[in-house]
Amino acid sequence: STILKGIVGYTLSADGEKVLFRAPPNKIGIAEAKPDQDSSKTLDLSHLEQRIDPRVEWAQILRDAWRIWRDWFYDPGMHGNDWEAVYQKYAALLPGVTHRNDLDFLINEMAGELNAGHIYVDRGDEPQVERKAGGFLGAEIAADASGYFRITKIYRGQNWSEGFRSPLTQPGVQVNEGEYIVAVDGRP
């Protein structure tokens, strides 16, 4: 029988009594492990905070990368490396890590000690600066004596490329140089 419909993942509790589930778009809920439970009843997690100490996290990531190679590398002899000594060598450099890119570099260097092909290190989480999308029209605009703004030049852009499109030259937009902006979003 079906316990929950419309979910994208779940974990059953150790005693088999409860189900922790994930529902679209990004909701978490707990339900009884009985048929026909309601997946719309989810938890409010908006008040939760997580404090992360990057240096502690980076030390763990380095250790995990080292351990994964230790446990899964095809040559148990690690191509002649004293793998514990390799870890100590790179762990000693952790105090100099100030950004996730530094850690990725360190992990890549550690991987290089194996002198083996097909060892890849994916970039980890990198801090992102919060950006607000600009409302650029791709045009030169000048104040006019009439009190309106006149479009004096439209930049054509490269409409085939997502990052270089010119909004005023998109299909269906009928704007020409010399015309006036008399309203924005229907407001004068």
Account of the 3D structure:
The structure is a single chain. With 188 residues, the protein is α+β, with helices and mostly antiparallel strands. The chain has 3 domains: 46 residues, no CATH class; 59 residues, Transcription Regulator spoIIAA, CATH 3.30.750.44; 43 residues, no CATH class. Helices cover 22% and strands 15% of the residues. It is built from 3 helices and 6 strands. The chain has a 3-stranded antiparallel sheet, with no helix packed on it. Strands 4-5-6 form a 3-stranded antiparallel sheet, with no helix packed on it. A hairpin with a 5-residue loop joins strand 1 and strand 2. Helix 1 runs antiparallel to helix 2 and helix 1 runs parallel beside helix 3. The protein is flat, with a radius of gyration of 28 Å. The chain starts with 8 loop residues before the first strand and ends in a 7-residue tail after the last strand. The mean pLDDT is 90.
